[in-house]
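[job 0412] stage=complex_fold ligand=benzoyl coenzyme A status=START
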Amino acid sequence: MATAAQAYDREDAVDQDAYERAFDAAVAADERIEPRDWMPDAYRATLVRQIAQHAHSEIIGMQPEANWITRAPSLRRKAILMAKVQDEAGHGLYLYSAAETLGTGRDELLDKLHTGRQKYSSIFNYPTLTWADVGAIGWLVDGAAITNQVPLCRCSYGPYARAMVRICKEESFHQRQGYELLLALSKGTPEQHAMAQDAVDRWWWPSLMMFGPPDDESAHSAQSMAWKIKRHSNDELRRRFVDICVPQAESLGLTLPDPDLKWNEELGRHEFGEIDWTEFKNVLKGNGPCNEQRITQRRQAHDEGAWVREAASAYAGKHTETGAARA
Ligand code: BYC
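[job 0412] stage=complex_fold status=DONE, emitting structure tokens
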């Protein structure tokens, strides 16, 4: 039986209104929109914007942690960190592929990243100063990512939703490795404990900013939620994340750097202090501690990888010619 979104294929649904009605019905019925289904231009543009920003975050996110691969304190830690950084490249790949199903090529998206026309997550503009930062990124940054991304597994656009299933499974492993690393430091020497606490102090607030601006300043949330791209608002997910982190911080023996953090019995959740939105806006404008470094390094990696792309497309061309000759 045809899904509502495919109804436009039917003879009685040839006009624009019918396409739109079929799309709306599919979204309302929680059906998946697939690449060949009709979709409003603005839905397509929003998805490309969000998926591209997400993909860029994954590959830029490799940099702060890769910085510590050569200095990991043991072979075990090095192997784990290498696997994690490699996973992030894979996430970028799934997401660029999902964007391609919407008709936007990877070259175009990478060009927009390299020329500052598309964003990546604010979080990756902060430096990784000590080994404990690798733990704080895993626990807090990947933890925030999971909180934000698990609902994206139910996103209305099929290829994005399916990419998110695998990404979330890998993010769970990343989060646990960060937690385990911080636990080892926290229960270690007083110096190690202090290093873990310092990392949490520096990463806590930027992690809360990952969820985006407050709801009343979120330009895209209302429409994205109506289209079921986003399932929850920025503030809702941020609050959920705080509630998850508080007991975990206690188990770790670490303190979250917010004197206003307290349980509100009436609301059934934690209240927390004011986020520095001026800092967030500054980072988005390109003025964070590492914005310039991240983009310079990205452009350099892209340029240095030109020969790999050329070799891969020459190989693919040869393969196609051979196949054509055989046929
Ligand atoms: N950083 O209307 P809003 C990861 C922008 S990867 C930078 O609320 P929306 C990981 C926003 O794009 C983490 N920009 O937007 C990787 C918009 O600007 P434009 C990335 C931000 O889209 C490796 C404007 O502010 N995760 O976790 O409804 C290792 C207004 O915002 C940020 C994803 O991308 C930010 N933090 O909601 C470890 C998940 N926040 O586009 C971990 C998918 C907002 O109009 N994305 N902006 O110029 C989403 O869920 C949503 O896009 C957001 C923002 C919640 C991020």
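The chain is about 65% helix and 0% strand.
[job 0412] exit 0
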